Amino acid sequence: MDAFDNSEQIRHTQLSDNSEHIRHTQLSENLKPIIWVIKVSGVVKRHPQKFFATGFSMRNDGLLLTSAHAINGVTAMKIKARKLTEEKFETAEVKYIRLKWDLALLKVNNVTDCSVGEFVSDGSIWKGQPLLHIGHPFDFVGSYLIGRACFSCVENVISPRNSENCGSYDSKACKQTPEYRVMGHMWNRAYFSRNQDLSFSFEKSLVPSVPIVQCNGINARPGSSGGPLFNMEGKVAGMLVGKVDGFDIAIHVAALKMFFTDATTPSGPDATAPSGPEEPSKKQRIC
């Protein structure tokens, strides 16, 4: 390779790097307005607790999607939320919750016009596809993280069967490769049997057929739960809920769409208040 070829290669690399810089800067600026910081305080097992989670707005009147485990098992609970781009916290309340899917919808008070996210029209995800996340791991509020899908996802999933639970579920993934990942591939009877040192009461109650996205590289931590998973076009493809055995786990957009429709349809199921002692184990709770 002569000097000319080498200089052209360097120039091409610089242009490529600059293009990526511009692309991610624009994505970050476009997506930040829909991200919220959620602060939850209350009593857990008779001890005062305060922790943070991530949420994102999907309707301009302050309706936020987040993880149910972030607010479950908390008594005398107070919820406050602020936009990532602002400093003022507003009070919020639980509008709708589906514990068995680990999904919750919050309503932020005094909000009438906020930026909103957009679900992907096609939930198909290919192996190795880049995925973005904006969340608040520990005190690193507003972290912009890039990972990749470890397994494919499809648009047309089977509607989760609420009569089932992960505590009694036997995964057949080792016998037959599934078309897409579900909650039961992560939490199942065999997994709980291997980890009897923890109660897993919350995880055992989850519905095994809820579709999930298995990804790597986002490195979820406490505060990340409830944050959106975006494709490279900035559309919502999932919602981060945990990290298990090194993998980042998100609820697939198909389940988010079903949940959001039920929660916002007047004739849909009534809202369910968070209740009971079921708490995620330390291996899963990253709120």
Strand order of the largest sheet: 1-2-3-6-5-4
What is the average per-residue confidence, as pLDDT, rounded to a whole number?
A: 89
By DSSP (H or I, 4+ residues per run), the number of helices equals: 5
Which structural class do the helices and strands define? alpha+beta
**Helix amount:** 10-25%
**Hey, roughly how much beta strand do the residues contain?**
25-35%
How many whole angstroms does the radius of gyration measure?
A: 20 Å
Question: Termini separation (Å)?
Answer: 53 Å
- Shape field: globular
Largest sheet: 6 strands, antiparallel, barrel
User: What is the element string, with H for helices and E for strands?
Assistant: HEEEEEEEEHHHEEEEH
Q: State the low-pLDDT regions, or none.
A: 273-287
For the secondary structure, the number of strands is 12
